[in-house]
């Protein structure tokens, strides 16, 4: 008889930083109470951490009491991050949960399973059912060849042992093989926690069941780290149709609808980068960060994944930027905002007007570059991530002697992609000196270029900011640009910095390019 | 050596009615040309039909020429709907494609395979490679037990034979079994076309390959009827990682991004209704219609699917509405718009003012009903689809002697769900007499109730219509309401009909409830 463990809030919390609206959690708890789900893992339990995380990362006692109120008939539990636990912490962490929680699981790196065993013994003494949730299943055979035999030592210690396909990279036949081996060693209940990178979470779960797995992990709408998990509604529909389980589809669809609405905002589920990370057993932590920030193009992410797969941290060391200590009196940074195009005529006139000064242009974005192709002053292009493709098209119209590309310092986390014909014109910075944050961004690059060129006057155009309602990405970009602009102003008092087109960004003097023309 | 057949435009056309933007198709064709995909099925080829369908449902010659221009190195083909073909049509349908198309497939009901064989022979004579695409794979064994043996007659006639998991209901072990049997009978290439209702499209494809399948059907982002197909990008990522195929991920991700944007609009992919239809081998045509119109709640759809599964057309015949020929002089229909709540006070005063008339209230929607709970006149509730749950909460506050529910005529396509405690108070219409369209809608029901009650004056409140930018659903609802309102006015000249709250709907006299109070 299969049992279902739902861990929607715990694994879904990776998307919401473990904050959930009360209405949603209540509907969810009520649905779980009504559905044939045996275990509900409501979140992580942790001690205070240095960065903010929400309610369901700590599960304070009132959260547990609330869950119990709505789910009186269910086994309720939390999971601990084994690597964060010091053995002395367990009493403090779990003492007040005794009698209130049914089970405690631990997320465990297989390298640490012995240490985890000691914690398990202590947790068990406190009266909880104890579960192991052991990660990196796809690496057990190759990297921990004796692991499965060794864990015979867990008999009598743990009540359940879940195998976690952390990378979403397993195939059904591999799941069958490992499940059979684990099953032959351990007497406790065996669980399977799939990830859906390659859309095999359900097939792998069926394979695990075929091989004798007892507990299946699932989350509503598959909400979970990276590509997410087996969907609870899929597995319950299966059990309803094939095993005749009694499923209250009204309750189920009500909570599914709640999470579907959140999914439109956060967009979990698999996509090309998660597929590639899955097929190559690469961690989804970085991929999730890249994908959800929507800052990098899919191409950049795929490039980075290919580098990871080939174990290349980076694939290209470039010559140092400005090793010959060029210097310009004035520079104009052109951003990607509409004014970078609208004001192009005025900016070009300004450059003509100041032809007695040494001037250069710095393109923070490739977007508006085309408007400046006919200028005869040096132009620098910031190349972040995988923009080489876009730049390739832009470059075709430029005087090749006037242009060069500048990349962030080596090694670049996302790898380096420079189109072949730009190779001789591409340089890297040695450092970003004026800011500790956002060092990889277009704006940081553009500002650092101005510093390296020791300009006395720096004008900035095409940094319009955003009007009206803005989304998460625009908000993040605003924050980033304001931070960087304030750093450059504060740290470089000898340089005159001004935006010269209309802008919503604060903290920098805002002149008008049109006024500079009549000056 | 596996070959890939991409049929994104053909199968994805079910969502866009086979119209696609030119930029998108060009990017797609260029990507296909660059990727290791052998066959591109660009659409249906059909003769003129009675209802509008777009470019890729007919694939006129210029469409084929355009596809060829961008994909000079690929095998390009179309698919025919076998059941629509008359043998005499083939020359007219395909004559101008000779030398321009490489292959022609036919979508075939297994019941018609012999008839399809004759067409295949003729198509082959014209010089095309001919493919069978045989549907309902999950029913072959039970409903067509000799089918697989019989199709030995296709040897020498067809160049490929694809097995279509039409309902998305197959399990990998079943795919292996059927593929092996087909493979033992046919000498041509064997293909597999999966659907992703239960997220097993990829696992089933791997199973088909294991059993000797030669050609795999896929679509970019899985775009395809209902829950959609195996994703091209998933399968190519697999082939790249596991088989070392050379995949240009830049090209691939560019076309994937185009289709992902469309997916946000059309929302293909699986969900609870598709899962239930999949697990029970139910056709996704109706489900797709229900899901994409977003008119019915998930609960209604699940109810309808359960009825289908149990082979119940409908599960409840109710007593006829108004069999005792009640009559009211005046009725007020309350819709779900904000004015149905905002004007509640005025409407209730109007009812008090006219207490010398016999009056009743008809709730087209349950949304605003609560505002009218303290009235002592009869109130009728329109119960469409699965609204019973919502009504259950609303009803609690009403005087039980004053209320009744009215449902559309029997049998109801979506089945009937009436909460138990409302059963004695629920009736069905025998007919919707004043309109040929939208007979199942809330508004049709409300208006028909007024007709059945032979009211002389019908007031309508809470039909506000929509302001500003509206989406597809609001547009459809507007069209529906305007049509129904104009029908009731045109067909019932003896009844005075007027909206009495602010409305954007045209064609009905618009009075003011506030004016009626000062009259």
Task: Outline the fold blueprint.
The structure is a homodimer of 519-residue chains.
Chain A: E1 3-6, H1 8-16, H2 22-34, E2 39-44, H3 55-58, H4 61-70, E3 75-81, H5 90-94, E4 103-108, H6 113-125, E5 129-134, H7 137-143, H8 147-150, E6 160-164, H9 172-185, E7 189-193, H10 201-210, E8 215-218, H11 232-243, H12 249-266, H13 272-279, H14 284-293, H15 298-309, E9 330-334, H16 339-342, H17 344-353, E10 359-363, E11 379-382, H18 388-395, E12 403-407, E13 426-428, H19 442-452, E14 457-461, H20 472-491, E15 496-499, E16 509-510, H21 513-518
Parallel strand pairs in A: 1-2, 1-8, 2-3, 3-4, 4-5, 5-6, 6-7, 7-8, 9-10, 9-14, 10-11, 11-12, 12-13, 14-15, 15-16
Helix pairs in contact in A: 2-12, 9-10, 13-14, 13-15
Keywords (chains A, B): Manganese
GO molecular function, one term (chains A, B): 2-isopropylmalate synthase activity
InterPro entries (chains A, B): 2-IPM_HCS-like (IPR050073), Aldolase_TIM (IPR013785), PYR_CT (IPR000891)
Q: Which strand order spans the largest sheet of chain A, edge to edge or round the barrel?
A: 1-2-3-4-5-6-7-8
Number of helical segments with 4 or more residues of chain A: 21
CATH class annotation of the largest domain in chain A? Alpha Beta
CATH superfamily of the largest domain in chain A: Aldolase class I
Question: Oligomeric status of the shown chains?
Answer: homodimer
**DSSP helix fraction of chain A:** 40-55%
Radius of gyration of chain A: 28 Å
Number of domains of chain A: 2
Structural class of chain A: alpha/beta
State the largest interface: A-B, 38 and 38 residues
Strand content of chain A: 5-15%
**What is the level-2 CATH architecture name of the largest domain in chain A?**
Alpha-Beta Barrel
Mean pLDDT of chain A: 92
Give the biggest beta sheet of chain A: 8 strands, parallel, barrel
Write down the CATH topology of the largest domain in chain A: TIM Barrel
**Low-confidence region ranges of chain A:** none
How many beta-strand segments of chain A?
Answer: 16
